[in-house]
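Subject line: Sequence and fold of a protein, written as structure tokens
Enclosed: The protein record, placed directly beneath this head.
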Amino acid sequence: MISVIAVIFVFSVIVLIHELGHYLAARAMGVRVDKFSIGFPPTVFSKKYGQTEFSIGAIPLGGYVKMAGFIDESLDANETGAEDEFNSKSTWRKVIIITAGVVMNLILAIAVLGFLNYSNGERIIPETTVGLVGAQGIAQKVGFKIHDKILAVNGKAVHNWNEIQQAFVDNLNKEIIFTVERNGQRINLDYHKSWFKEKKGEVLDIQPLFSARVGDVSYSMPAGKLGLKKGDLITSIAGKPVKDWQEMTESIRSHPGQEIEIQWKRGYQLLSGKIIPQKFEETDKDGKKIEVGKIGISYYYESKDVGVARALVNGVNQTYDLMALNLKSLGWVLTGTKSASEIIGGPIMIAKMAGDAAHAGWDYLLYLIAALSAVLALFNIFPIPGLDGGHLFFILLEGIMRKPLPIQVRVKIQQIGMAILLTLMIFIFYIDLRRFL
């Protein structure tokens, strides 16, 4: 149930902000708004205030603002030339109205990411030693081994895991040289550009060797009830010493619903207590349902407090990074470097992400809203008929020509645009279903 609520919440917030941008800009520019709808029919709520009908649709996958004298997805070509109609306004006013949705999505992304930066600080994972080499990416082919200490990426020194991740993303589809220390010796591990085209070639799939130090604590879970705090170093589980995060979690996972002894250090103080890992059901690599234990802690990270100004700057930079990466990804698909099924995700994938984020906590859900809002802003400005970018293109074209395009031409362009968008939607749903099944 929480997953369904999360999906509706995520889509509704993003769409509401986008359409609110168009609505507020239209009213500010003197354009009459006939309808403001969040969601698609069938309508579950509708009420008219002044000249505008506000409604909520049962399908929370979009929304629209119906402006007088504007040919949109409804293909309504009714124009009277009245002063409060869209096409009666000057070019610059039209541009403001059309781009307002994208601008609002950008503001939402920056504001949410800025808020997360301000409330959580800059999160740094202070590790550069490899603790896990997965089989779902390219790490094994590169030659990574557990306990490799990563020193540099393409000659640039790295000091924490955040820098390693950023360096890998920045150099995707390029030759990458990882300088690592292994058994006291420096060696180079090569990632070849040609590997990027392989399935999961864009996924490194390594994780840092975390110490058994406590990060965030869920106070409704066993760890919180016992009194564990951030920074505590767990030294033994069920009477057996643990030296890193993986040993600790494996021991906890193997005791679902069983009372075990746990010891930890807090500064110079050695503490101990009894704890019962909460039962959770998971699916193992063979597809079997298994029970595992969890106590409600995450790995340790360092948090650097930032002020409002720095938080907003980080929000802007992270929004730009999200958009740049998505633009690169689209380029990889269009050039055939990566397949669409590896890169593109639609409503089903987003729904799964929303459900996972909701279970993980508010921070993750808010980050997902910011990321999707940034992506919506990027793709909605593309000059495709039916999208804001398509409308913007023809508004600017009419401004240059100093005369409007014939209504029949505009309707035909909208029809072509809707056909393109419908085809893309079907294609994306197909990819989503195939991935899900």
Remarks:
- Residues 214-296 form a domain with the Pdz3 Domain fold (CATH 2.30.42.10).
